[in-house]
């Protein structure tokens, strides 16, 4: 057992924390002034942060669960809206399934020159990974795709979008899924992009007889589900680590506020009713940290073990996120729901963790089903 | 024990329903239903419609232009208007200042100000909180110094709801510096057009600007605008806060939110089935519905006791805590029901008449903003911590 970070990871954490503290302005994100900053993105690439998401075989120098944890916790602590998550998911799928020609893009991805997105979730699919209605049919050598994708993070900015579609079976089947690498501006792909509540941008995508060449297919047609589920597990690890960073930041803000704000002639922290609630917040954040460690340490385990940890961690972190957001706002009072105060951005971003990859209720149900199976 | 309504009350409910069917403009109820932002004109329009029946301030005595409603009639009014998605009545003139003037105002003040509240001449806002005086309201620092026939007001108020629309503000100001801090406070009526007043918007977590900072620099207020005695303001403030807490349970709002939640959970799907059929999700809805059913009766019990002349004390604080928590939990579950479509933040789509379409189903557009915005419920009107202190003090001698 060893719960310390390796020296390399410690250095990555320190450098990343300093860089993001310098570059990210939570107030600007809260106001919606910027989707994300190309300057920050270039700095992430330069520091090797994008590379830390990929294994050495794929041109990176990391890619393990604890690399994700270090990177995304710092992204959370800063409230950074840069679309690193989309690079992790889509880049990971390219790395796992791509042909040599497709994998050749990864150099530019790791260098920060190419932006990615993953278009998988559909209207009505909610959090069910297998509910894909978008249809891909073979047309000579190539493919024709028709369907809709919803809330595609970074869709509007991506140079390549990894799109999932069904080549056989019914909506809801695990078999019959395929992935395609679709370049920006492909004819037949209609995109509406918009701001997201926690920062960054999303897009609705409609595909109407969108033609793709044969070499757009990523991996084997009809058998993409295991890779999608694996990518999802890595995404949940990254997202819960980000949530952890957000919780740490919110906790610090709230603790400072309780020490500085005076009512009835004493600092708020001297009111036991508030101090005890803050102590509860501290306890639950430590539980959340353990849950994230559990998942990051089991990303490469067998499927059953890994997925059990996905739901356990996502459930616990989701519940903790609600507690931390609501208690921190309440203990701040009115200032806690003011856009010009940093907490607004962090609270929104942390709350939105529950609206992607499944919320606490979804994973509570999923965990109990997996346990009973 | 008898849980039924009297014939008189049933007749009132029927009359009210017919009125709402006929007179509530669909344009307004659509906005409320879809969570769109109401304009100043929308609110004024609805007030005027209600006043055709003397229902705008139905609980005011008839001599002042009300209908002399009892507590049960007020309850029915709240229940039916929220069920019909009517805009809520702005509380500042009608629920807050009106009762204060009736109890503490001079005959001249009543004759001058009360009709103007009802006919929409004046739009009031509330100048209570200050940057250093939130839960500890008596710590307020805005000063009013006597200078001949005027008070000269200096200081800053904050969290002033809809001050951008208001032409008048009632304020707690410091007129005395000796003794306990509660003893040097006065209640003053101030014209927002007076020189030296500046209103600055505060943007909230949902992107809206419903609250403001109000700054006062050497604002001259005629002494006849003092309500009650000088340094009697704390008594008035406490009286007003009790009135503010009447109907604070928000049973109507909660019922409306529960119906909306069920509707959305019936339209959203998980694993190919309506979300409302998911046992875990259904249990969460049920838990809140059970709470709400009990709270509706708690509310009526308090209301009935008040009708018999017992001033609500700790009970109104209990209703405030329970009512706000239930509403917040309903908001929480409603945003969850929308899943990924609670993420898009298209603020323009919440402005009625904008050409910007919401992303995803229309019911999803306001849910995140509403969840965040309604965190205010447990903060304003005396935070829930202050309410618990009141309960502990009154019931337990804490």
Automatic annotation (TrEMBL), chain A:
<dbReference type="InterPro" id="IPR009075">
    <property type="entry name" value="AcylCo_DH/oxidase_C"/>
</dbReference>
<dbReference type="InterPro" id="IPR009100">
    <property type="entry name" value="AcylCoA_DH/oxidase_NM_dom_sf"/>
</dbReference>
<protein>
    <submittedName>
        <fullName>Cyclohex-1-ene-1-carbonyl-CoA dehydrogenase</fullName>
        <ecNumber>1.3.8.10</ecNumber>
    </submittedName>
</protein>
<dbReference type="InterPro" id="IPR006091">
    <property type="entry name" value="Acyl-CoA_Oxase/DH_mid-dom"/>
</dbReference>
<dbReference type="GO" id="GO:0003995">
    <property type="term" value="F:acyl-CoA dehydrogenase activity"/>
</dbReference>
<feature type="domain" description="Acyl-CoA dehydrogenase/oxidase C-terminal">
    <location>
        <begin position="239"/>
        <end position="351"/>
    </location>
</feature>
<feature type="domain" description="Acyl-CoA dehydrogenase/oxidase N-terminal">
    <location>
        <begin position="6"/>
        <end position="105"/>
    </location>
</feature>
<dbReference type="InterPro" id="IPR046373">
    <property type="entry name" value="Acyl-CoA_Oxase/DH_mid-dom_sf"/>
</dbReference>
<keyword id="KW-0285">Flavoprotein</keyword>
<keyword id="KW-0560">Oxidoreductase</keyword>
<dbReference type="InterPro" id="IPR037069">
    <property type="entry name" value="AcylCoA_DH/ox_N_sf"/>
</dbReference>
<dbReference type="Pfam" id="PF02770">
    <property type="entry name" value="Acyl-CoA_dh_M"/>
</dbReference>
<dbReference type="Pfam" id="PF02771">
    <property type="entry name" value="Acyl-CoA_dh_N"/>
</dbReference>
<dbReference type="Pfam" id="PF00441">
    <property type="entry name" value="Acyl-CoA_dh_1"/>
</dbReference>
<dbReference type="InterPro" id="IPR036250">
    <property type="entry name" value="AcylCo_DH-like_C"/>
</dbReference>
<keyword id="KW-0274">FAD</keyword>
<dbReference type="InterPro" id="IPR013786">
    <property type="entry name" value="AcylCoA_DH/ox_N"/>
</dbReference>
<dbReference type="GO" id="GO:0050660">
    <property type="term" value="F:flavin adenine dinucleotide binding"/>
</dbReference>
<feature type="domain" description="Acyl-CoA oxidase/dehydrogenase middle">
    <location>
        <begin position="117"/>
        <end position="204"/>
    </location>
</feature>
<comment type="similarity">
    <text>Belongs to the acyl-CoA dehydrogenase family.</text>
</comment>
Automatic annotation (TrEMBL), chain B:
<keyword id="KW-0274">FAD</keyword>
<dbReference type="InterPro" id="IPR037069">
    <property type="entry name" value="AcylCoA_DH/ox_N_sf"/>
</dbReference>
<dbReference type="GO" id="GO:0005886">
    <property type="term" value="C:plasma membrane"/>
</dbReference>
<keyword id="KW-0560">Oxidoreductase</keyword>
<dbReference type="GO" id="GO:0050660">
    <property type="term" value="F:flavin adenine dinucleotide binding"/>
</dbReference>
<protein>
    <submittedName>
        <fullName>Acyl-CoA dehydrogenase FadE17</fullName>
        <ecNumber>1.3.99.-</ecNumber>
    </submittedName>
</protein>
<dbReference type="InterPro" id="IPR052161">
    <property type="entry name" value="Mycobact_Acyl-CoA_DH"/>
</dbReference>
<dbReference type="Pfam" id="PF02770">
    <property type="entry name" value="Acyl-CoA_dh_M"/>
</dbReference>
<dbReference type="InterPro" id="IPR013786">
    <property type="entry name" value="AcylCoA_DH/ox_N"/>
</dbReference>
<dbReference type="InterPro" id="IPR036250">
    <property type="entry name" value="AcylCo_DH-like_C"/>
</dbReference>
<dbReference type="InterPro" id="IPR009100">
    <property type="entry name" value="AcylCoA_DH/oxidase_NM_dom_sf"/>
</dbReference>
<keyword id="KW-0285">Flavoprotein</keyword>
<dbReference type="Pfam" id="PF00441">
    <property type="entry name" value="Acyl-CoA_dh_1"/>
</dbReference>
<comment type="similarity">
    <text>Belongs to the acyl-CoA dehydrogenase family.</text>
</comment>
<dbReference type="InterPro" id="IPR006091">
    <property type="entry name" value="Acyl-CoA_Oxase/DH_mid-dom"/>
</dbReference>
<feature type="domain" description="Acyl-CoA oxidase/dehydrogenase middle">
    <location>
        <begin position="125"/>
        <end position="219"/>
    </location>
</feature>
<dbReference type="InterPro" id="IPR009075">
    <property type="entry name" value="AcylCo_DH/oxidase_C"/>
</dbReference>
<dbReference type="InterPro" id="IPR046373">
    <property type="entry name" value="Acyl-CoA_Oxase/DH_mid-dom_sf"/>
</dbReference>
<dbReference type="Pfam" id="PF02771">
    <property type="entry name" value="Acyl-CoA_dh_N"/>
</dbReference>
<dbReference type="GO" id="GO:0016627">
    <property type="term" value="F:oxidoreductase activity, acting on the CH-CH group of donors"/>
</dbReference>
<feature type="domain" description="Acyl-CoA dehydrogenase/oxidase N-terminal">
    <location>
        <begin position="6"/>
        <end position="120"/>
    </location>
</feature>
<feature type="domain" description="Acyl-CoA dehydrogenase/oxidase C-terminal">
    <location>
        <begin position="231"/>
        <end position="393"/>
    </location>
</feature>
């Amino acid at each position: 057992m060893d719960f310390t970070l390796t020296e390399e990871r410690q250095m990555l954490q320190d450098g990343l924390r300093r860089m993001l503290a310098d570059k990210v302005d939570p107030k600007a994100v809260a106001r919606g002034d910027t989707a994300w900053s190309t300057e920050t993105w270039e700095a992430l690439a330069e520091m090797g942060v994008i590379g830390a998401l990929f294994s050495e075989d794929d041109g990176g120098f990391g890619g393990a669960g604890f690399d994700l944890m270090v990177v995304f916790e710092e992204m959370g602590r800063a409230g950074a809206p840069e679309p690193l998550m989309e690079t992790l998911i889509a880049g990971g799928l390219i790395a796992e399934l791509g042909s040599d020609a497709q994998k050749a893009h990864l150099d530019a991805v790791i260098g920060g020159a190419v932006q990615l997105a993953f278009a998988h979730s559909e209207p009505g699919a909610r959090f069910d990974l297998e509910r894909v209605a978008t249809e891909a049919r073979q047309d000579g050598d190539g493919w024709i795709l028709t369907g809709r994708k919803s809330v595609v993070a970074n869709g509007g900015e991506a140079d390549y979008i990894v799109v999932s579609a069904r080549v056989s079976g019914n909506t809801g089947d695990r078999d019959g899924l395929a992935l395609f690498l679709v370049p920006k501006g492909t004819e037949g792909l209609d995109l509406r992009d918009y701001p997201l509540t926690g920062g960054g941008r999303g897009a609705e995508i409609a595909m109407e007889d969108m033609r793709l060449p044969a070499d757009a297919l990523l991996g084997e047609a009809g058998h993409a589900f295991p890779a999608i589920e694996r990518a999802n597990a890595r995404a949940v690890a990254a997202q819960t680590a980000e949530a952890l960073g957000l919780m740490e930041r919110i906790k610090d803000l709230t603790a400072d506020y309780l020490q500085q704000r005076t009512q009835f002639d004493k600092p708020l922290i001297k009111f036991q009713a508030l101090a005890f609630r803050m102590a509860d917040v501290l306890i639950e954040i430590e539980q959340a940290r353990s849950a994230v460690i559990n998942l990051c340490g089991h990303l490469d385990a067998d499927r059953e073990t890994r997925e059990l940890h996905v739901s356990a961690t996502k459930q616990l972190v989701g519940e903790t996120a609600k507690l931390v957001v609501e208690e921190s706002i309440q203990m701040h009072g009115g200032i806690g729901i003011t856009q010009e105060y940093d907490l607004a951005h962090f609270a929104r971003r942390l709350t939105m963790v529950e609206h992607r990859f499944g919320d606490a209720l979804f994973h509570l149900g999923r965990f109990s089903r997996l346990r009973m199976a | 024990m008898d849980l039924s309504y009297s014939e008189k009350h049933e007749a009132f409910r029927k009359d009210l329903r017919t009125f709402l069917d006929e007179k509530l403009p669909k344009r307004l109820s659509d906005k409320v239903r879809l969570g769109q932002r109401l304009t100043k004109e929308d609110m004024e329009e609805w007030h005027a419609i209600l006043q055709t029946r003397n229902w705008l301030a139905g609980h005011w005595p008839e001599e002042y232009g009300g209908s002399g409603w009892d507590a049960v009639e007020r309850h029915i009014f709240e229940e039916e208007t929220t069920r019909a998605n009517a805009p809520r009545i702005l509380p500042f003139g009608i629920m807050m200042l009106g009762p204060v003037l009736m109890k503490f105002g001079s005959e001249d003040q009543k004759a001058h100000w009360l009709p103007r509240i009802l006919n929409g001449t004046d739009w009031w806002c509330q100048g209570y909180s200050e940057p250093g005086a939130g839960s500890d309201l008596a710590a307020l620092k805005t000063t009013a110094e006597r200078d001949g026939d005027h008070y000269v007001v200096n200081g800053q108020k904050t969290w002033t709801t809809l001050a951008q629309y208001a032409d008048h503000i009632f304020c707690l100001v410091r007129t005395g510096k000796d003794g306990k801090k509660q003893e040097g406070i006065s209640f003053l009526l101030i014209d927002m057009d007076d020189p030296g007043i500046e209103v600055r918007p505060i943007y909230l977590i949902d992107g809206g600007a419903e609250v403001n900072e109000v700054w006062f620099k050497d604002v001259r207020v005629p002494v006849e605008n003092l309500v009650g005695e000088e340094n009697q303001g704390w008594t008035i403030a406490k009286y007003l806060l009790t009135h503010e807490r009447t109907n604070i349970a928000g049973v109507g709002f909660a019922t409306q939110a529960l119906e909306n939640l069920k509707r959305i959970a019936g339209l959203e799907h998980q694993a190919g089935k309506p979300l409302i059929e998911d046992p875990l999700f259904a249990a969460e809805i049920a838990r809140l519905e059970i709470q709400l059913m009990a709270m509706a009766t708690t509310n009526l019990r308090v209301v009935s006791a008040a009708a018999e002349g017992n001033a609500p004390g700790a009970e109104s604080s209990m209703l405030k805590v329970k009512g706000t928590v239930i509403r917040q939990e309903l908001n929480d579950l409603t945003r969850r029901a929308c899943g990924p479509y609670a993420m898009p933040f298209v603020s323009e789509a919440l402005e009625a008449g904008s050409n910007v379409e919401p992303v995803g189903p229309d019911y999803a557009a306001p849910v995140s903003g509403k969840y965040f915005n309604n965190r205010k419920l447990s903060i304003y009107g005396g935070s829930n911590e202050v309410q618990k202190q009141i309960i502990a003090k009154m019931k337990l001698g804490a």
